[in-house]
Amino acid sequence: MDISIKYDPKSVEKKRYHYWMKGNYFSSYPDDRIPYTIVMPPPNITGVLHIGHMLNNTIQDVLIRYARMKGYNACWIPGTDHASIATEAKVVDQLKKQGFSKSFLGRDKFLNYVLEWAKKHKNIIFDQLKKLGCSCDWKRTQFTMNQKLSKSVSKIFIDLYEHGYIYRDYHVVNWDPEAKTTLSDEEVVYKERIGQLYYLKYQIKGEKNYVTVATTRPETIFGDTALCFHPSDSRYFHLTGKYAKVPIINKYIPIIQDSYVDKDFGTGCLKITPAHDIHDKNIADKYKLDIIDIFNEDATLNEKGLHYKGMNRFEVRKKIIEELKQLGFLVRIEKYNHKIGFSERTLSIVEQRLSLQWFLKMKEISLPAIEAVKNGDIQFYPKKLNKIYFQWMNQIRDWNISRQLWWGHRLPVYYYGNKTNDFVVAESLEQALKKARKKSNNSYLSYDEIWQDPDVLDTWFSSWLFPLSVFDGICHPHNHEICYYYPTEDIVTGSDILFFWVARMIIAGLFFQKKKPFKRVFFTGIIRDSKNQKISKSLNNSPDPMDLMNQYGADAVRMGLMLKTSAGQDFHFDEKICLQGRNFSNKIWNAFRLIKSWKMQENKEIPDSSLIAIKWLKNRFYYVLEIFEKHFQEYRLDESLMVLYKFIWYDFCSYFLEIIKPIHGNRCISKIEYLSSVKFFENILKLLHPYMPFLSEEIWNLIEKRKPEEALIISSWPEKKYYDYEMLVSFEKVTQIISKIRNIRNQCHISYQKSFVLFAMRKKEKEEKEYDSIILKLANLSEIVSILEKPKNTPLFSFFLNTDQFFLSLTDESHNSSHVDIMSIEKKIQYFQNLLSSIQKNLSNDKYVTSVPENILSKERKKESDTLKKIYQLEKYLESLKK
C-alpha cells in the first residue's frame, strides 16, 4: 500500500479480515493454556442487526481480543436464535403477501419456508458481524435449532418431567391473539393508556334493587361467574348470600366476599371472570366457581358470546355498551388511566385466557441461582442490577414453557387417548409407543393411534441451556470440551433480558452442571436518540449499522460506541461519535505516515530534547498501561479507551512526535529516535488492537514485514514495568507551560513564526531547567531567561503556574515584523469589548443579580474578569506593535 495516501478503511478491513481468517487466528481447541470463553447472545434470525447488536458484539470482541493477547486460549462462540414467535410472524406475513397461508401449506411445507428464511438471515447476520471485525470461532457456529442443541432441549424436558419439575395444567396465561400463542410474563410489555371505566347495573335476585359494578371490559360479562366485595365493606353486608342477574344473558351468579377486592376501586364491588383474569381465577378456585372461556384464539368471541359470536373483542365493546345503554344497565362512563399489556413480538394487545399448557416449577431450582449472585460467585456490572435480580427471583412463578406455534423445538410429548392423562414423554415416536403400550396396558397400540403434541417449546427454553449445550454438556455432561471451557468467563447483554435469559442460564447451569455458567455479566445500557427515545426498528429511528461502517469504517464506529458505553448506563447516539472515531483513525494513520517519512541516519547526533522525550514517553506509557488495565479489569471500558485516546492524541502525537520531528524540512533522524518511535508505536498498537483491530493490524504489518506467527492479533500484551512518577509530574508542568504560550498566541492572533523570549521565575530552577530544550522547540521561543524578580521593562504577557511566574516578550526581530496583522487585533479587541458590555449590563441589573442562581452569577463575574484580562493583554500587545 502507498502510505502517502489517506487511510482507506474499506480496502483495509476486507483485506485484514481475510488475513485473520486465513491465519486461523480465531480458532480455539483445548490445550494447556487457561481458557477464556464467551458465548455470544444469539441474535434472532428475524432481520439485520441493529445498532444495539453492534455495541454488544463490539464489547465482546474487545474482551476476547484482549484475552487472546494476554495469553489465554480465547474462544468466542457465535450463534443465532430461532426466535419462534418473531420468526414465525415474519414468515407468515411474507407468505401472506404471496397469497399463501400457514394452514393452507401445512406444517412440513411451512417449516421449509422458515428454514429458507433462517439460512438467508443467518448469513446476513454473520456477514455483518464479520464486517464489524468480530473474531469469533466460526467453526463453532451454533443455531438454537441445530441437531445437537435440539437433542439437548428434548433430553432436559424429559429429565425434568420425570423428576416432577414439568407438569401440564389449566392456567390463565398471557395470550397473543395475533400469533395465537401463549406468552410468558416477561414477553408482555405494559404501557399506560387512557381508557374508560364502565359502571353496570346487576339486578339482585328476587328484588327490584340493583348492585353497580365498575369494569374496563364490559364485553367479558359473558364470562362472569360471580360478583365480589370485601368482607369488611359494610355497604354490601345486605348482599351476603344473595345472587345477581348478569345483563343480556340473564343468568344468576352468586355474590361472594374476598379480601382481594379493593374497596376504593370503582364501587368496591367486582365482577369475577375467572377464564380471563389470573386474580379472578384464584378466587374461582377458592370458591369453586364456574369458569367460562368466551374467546377464540384470535380474540373474537365464541358461541358463549351469543349474538356477538365471531366479532372482534373491541368491536363487541362498542356494540355491547350501546345494547346495555338501551336496556338501562349502563349507569355511567368515566375516563380511566391504566396499564395495558402488549405482546413484545407482535405488539398486539395481550388477552388473559384459561388454557391447558406445560409449566416448569421454578421456585426450588432457583435457590442456588439466588445464592450465587448474593455471595459474589457471579458478578453483575453494574452491581445495582443485583437488587432487581433478587426481587424477581424471590417472586418467581412457574414458567409457561409451551407455545402454540410450528417453528421451534417440538414438545417430546405423545398422546394416545381421549383422557387428560393419556400421554407419555419420550425422545422419539418408537420410544413413545413402548411407553404408551406399557402405561395404557395395551400391547396392541399402533403407530396410527399415537400422535405428537403440535406445540413447541418457548424459545428461551433452548437459550437457557446455551452455555451448556454448545459444548454438548447436556447429552455428555463430562466430555472434554465442557470440562475445559465451562464455566465461561463473561456474558455481555442488555438488562432487558436479565430475566428472560441471564437468570435462567444461571438457574440451568447450577441445576444441571452444578456449576455457574459464567463468572461475570456486563449489562449494556439502552441506546437512545436525541429525543431520549429508545432506538428501535419500530420507531424507525435506528441508524443502519452497515451504512455507518461504509461511511466511517468499522473501527470508527466501534470506537465511537465504546467511548460512549458504560456498564448499565443509557446513552444518546449521535453520528458525531463515528466522525470522532474516523478523525482518530486519520490521526493515527498520519502519525504512522510521519514516522515512515523520516530517514534514519546512523551517526546523527541526538538532541537533548529528544533524549528527554524518549525517557518521558517510556515512563508515561507504563503509567498509562497501569491505568488502562485498572479500568479494563473493572469493566470501565469507556474509561480505558479514553485514557488511550488521550495518550495517543496528546502525549504521542502532539508532544513526542513534535519533539523528535526534524526541523527546517530535514527528514533525517537518529537511529535511536527512529527505533524508539517505532517501538512506542508498536506498543500503542497493541493497546489499541482490541478497540480498533483493522487499523492497528494494518499498520503493524506495514511497519515491517511479519511472519504469520507475528500477527498483532496474537502478539503478547505489554507487561507492566516501573515508571518514574516524579518525572511525569515535572513533564506535566512543561506541557502546561507550552499550552499557556500556545493559548496566548491563539488568543492574540500571534503567528507561530514570531518568536518569544520567556522570562522564568522558578522555585526549582535546577530540576526544571533540563526541560527548557523542549519548551524552546514546541513553544517556538528564542530564549528562556531565568530571573529572580519581575523584569523592569514589563513584558507583554505573564502567567502563573503553581508558585512559578513566567513573562513573555517578543524578540526585537519579531517585534518589528511588518507581517503582524494590526487590524485583526483591533477587531478582536472590539469583539471582547462588546462581550464585556453585555456581561456588565447584566451584572449592573439588580433584578438580574437577585433572581439568578449563585453559581450562574459566579460564572458571569468570572467571565467579566477573564474578558477584562484579555482586553488588557490585547491592548498592550497592540500598543507594542504600533511603537
Give the count of helical stretches: 29
Structural class: alpha/beta
Q: Kindly estimate the percentage of residues that lie in beta strands according to DSSP.
A: 15-25%
Shape: globular
Kindly report the name of the CATH homologous superfamily of the domain at 548-723. Isoleucyl-tRNA Synthetase, Domain 1
Q: Which CATH class of the domain at 548-723 applies here?
A: Mainly Alpha
Q: Give the distance, in angstroms, between the N- and C-terminal Cα atoms.
A: 55 Å
Question: Notable features of this structure?
Answer:
7-stranded mixed beta sheet, alpha/beta, Isoleucyl-tRNA Synthetase, domain 2, single chain, 883 residues, 4-stranded antiparallel beta sheet, Isoleucyl-tRNA Synthetase, Domain 1, 45% helix, 29 helices
Short description:
The chain is of the alpha/beta class. Residues 813-820 have low confidence and may be disordered.
How would you sum up this structure, described in words?
Among the domains are: 187-352, Isoleucyl-tRNA Synthetase, domain 2, CATH 3.90.740.10; 548-723, Orthogonal Bundle (Isoleucyl-tRNA Synthetase, Domain 1), CATH 1.10.730; 724-811; 821-883. 45% of the residues lie in helices and 18% in strands. The protein contains 29 helices and 31 strands. Strands 7, 8, 9, 10, 11, 12 and 13 form a seven-stranded mixed sheet that branches. Helix 18 (576-597) runs parallel beside helix 20 (637-660) and helix 19 (608-633) crosses helix 25 (772-778). The model is unreliable at 813-820 (pLDDT under 50). Strand 1, helix 2 and strand 2 form a beta-alpha-beta unit. With 883 residues, it is α/β, with parallel strands linked by helices.
